[in-house]
């Protein structure tokens, strides 16, 4: 524990006591979310005589410090290891949340547009290009000196239906879809130029067993569509590093297929520079060994690794309840959304340890890992509040709904400062 942290802790006001040896934040900042995901109030006050008992039962487990953005920075702490990035939402880039924007500027040195560069955002109607979101994002990132990780050129989600349709309901030909992809990339290259340092060329093409997903891209162009996309991207974005991006890269089948694809591309002169391993981790899976093995497999194949969309999901798995309406099923809601008011101390401690353990693996592999990007600025901004079930309260990031740093943030900074 550093003296600076103690000094900062002592500045904390009123409702929140603070401990370092047992990092149990005794806050009860547990109101319900407003539209921004930010908590509107500090929530129910804890009885001042019995805070310890309360904290063991239900601790928001999150805020540990008054946050002074000038005091500590993740990006600075890890400057000798890798870049620290963040997904920036449309609202933040366009100036609708100054506090979150200041946090991004203070903590991160690489930015990914969460949705602004996706096909749907840029060319929702054929031939009608709308760069307003992309421009706002780029202006934001550049004004804060952040590198830009473009996301994403080829994906089967957030792409309008017309891309895969032929006039008159006919089947679109391979040549026609490749021409559409060519035109889309050409427009992006003309408009964005060299302002994008990394491009996710293809996103989420493989299943966990290492087979190609059955997507319109694959069906219409054929199994070489990934290669075709990289060839086009290499032509249009010669200055950018070209990335294949996917989740669950710790699954041996997917990991091996992607590593084999990299080796094959390199052997045949198809440029690929990096693998984006999304890093949508659960609190208890995958294993650290699997994370390490995946990084090593890609490093050995000859590319850098970007941990491109990191978060740590603390909620019970719910994929079998996708689309469930929690508002009409109290029992299901209690099971799947158990931390509506706050996070139990035991869970927040496990999450803190998980963040620390994962970053330790990344630092051990810093010769290969070029960046670690968090998928969202704070818990209130996370997609995991609405997936796979809408309307849950998750705690997957390093800043809480009030944009206060968590114990995990402190632990990561201290680990970086202590490392040689
Ligand atoms: O654009 C519409 C807007 O017009 C409408 O008013 C609003 C109402 O809900 O919805 C808006 O679209 C939303 C879009 O984000 C932009 O905000 C979609 O409903 C919503 O589903 C979409 O979610 C995004 C999701 O990708 C789509 O699959 C998340 O923000 C984004 O975090 C998430 O990111 C993906 C990565 O791109 C790829 N890897 C997985 C990751 C998490 O799913």
Task: Give the topology.
Blueprint: H1 3-11, H2 51-57, H3 74-77, E1 83-88, H4 90-93, H5 98-107, E2 110-113, H6 119-122, H7 132-143, E3 147-154, H8 174-192, E4 198-203, H9 216-221, H10 225-236, E5 241-246, H11 252-267, E6 274-277, E7 280-282, H12 288-301, E8 304-313, H13 330-336, H14 345-364, E9 369-374, H15 407-418
Parallel strand pairs: 1-2, 1-9, 2-3, 3-4, 4-5, 5-6, 6-8, 7-8, 8-9
Helix pairs in contact: 8-10, 11-12, 14-15
Bound molecules: ligand G3I.
The site of ligand G3I has 8 residues, from loops.
Q: What strand line-up does the widest sheet have?
A: 1-2-3-4-5-6-8-9
Q: Helical stretch count?
A: 15
Query: Which kinds of small molecule does this entry bind, naming each only once?
Result: ligand G3I
- Which range best describes the helical content: under 10%, 10-25%, 25-40%, 40-55%, 55-70% or over 70%? 25-40%
Extract low-pLDDT stretches: 1-36, 39-56
What characterizes the major β-sheet? 8 strands, parallel, barrel
Number of strands: 9
| Mean residue pLDDT | 86
Structural class: alpha/beta
Q: What is the element string, with H for helices and E for strands?
A: HHHEHHEHHEHEHHEHEEHEHHEH
| Morphology | globular
Question: What share of the residues does DSSP label as strand, in percent?
Answer: 5-15%
Radius of gyration: 22 Å
């Amino acid at each position: 524990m550093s003296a600076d942290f103690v000094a900062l802790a002592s500045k904390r006001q009123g409702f929140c006591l603070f401990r370092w040896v047992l990092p149990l934040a005794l806050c009860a900042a547990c109101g319900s979310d407003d539209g921004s995901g930010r908590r509107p109030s500090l929530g129910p006050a804890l009885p001042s005589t019995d805070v310890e008992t309360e904290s063991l039962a239900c601790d928001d487990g999150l805020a540990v410090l008054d946050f002074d953005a000038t005091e500590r920075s993740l990006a600075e702490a890890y400057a000798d290891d890798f870049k620290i990035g963040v997904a920036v939402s449309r609202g933040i880039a366009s100036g609708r949340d100054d506090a979150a924007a200041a946090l991004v500027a203070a903590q991160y040195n690489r930015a990914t547009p969460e949705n602004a560069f996706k096909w749907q955002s840029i060319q929702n109607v054929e031939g009608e290009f709308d760069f307003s979101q992309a421009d706002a994002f780029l202006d934001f990132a550049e004004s804060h000196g952040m590198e830009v990780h473009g996301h994403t050129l080829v994906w089967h989600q957030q792409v309008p239906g017309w891309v895969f349709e032929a006039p008159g309901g006919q089947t679109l030909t391979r040549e026609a879809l490749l021409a559409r992809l060519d035109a889309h990339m050409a427009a992006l290259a003309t408009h964005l130029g060299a302002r994008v340092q990394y491009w996710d060329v293809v996103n989420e093409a493989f299943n966990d067993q290492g087979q190609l997903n059955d997507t319109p891209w694959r069906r219409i162009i054929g199994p070489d569509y990934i290669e075709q996309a990289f060839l086009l991207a290499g032509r249009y974005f010669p200055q950018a590093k070209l990335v294949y991006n996917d989740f669950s890269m710790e699954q041996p089948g997917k990991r091996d297929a992607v590593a084999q694809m990299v080796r094959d591309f390199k052997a045949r002169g198809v440029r690929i520079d990096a693998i984006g391993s999304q890093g949508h981790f659960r609190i208890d899976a995958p294993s650290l060994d699997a994370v390490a093995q995946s990084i090593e497999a890609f490093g050995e194949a000859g590319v850098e690794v970007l941990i491109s969309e990191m978060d740590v999901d603390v909620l019970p798995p719910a994929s079998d309840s996708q689309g469930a309406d929690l508002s009409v099923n109290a029992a299901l809601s209690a099971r799947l959304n158990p931390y509506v008011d706050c996070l139990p101390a035991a869970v927040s401690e496990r999450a803190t340890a998980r963040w620390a353990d994962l970053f330790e693996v990344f630092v051990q592999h810093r010769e290969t890992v070029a960046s670690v990007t968090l998928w969202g600025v704070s818990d209130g901004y996370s997609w995991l509040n609405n997936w796979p079930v809408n309307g849950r309260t998750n705690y997957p990031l390093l800043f809480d709904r009030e944009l206060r740093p968590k114990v995990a943030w402190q632990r990561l900074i201290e680990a970086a400062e202590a490392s040689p």
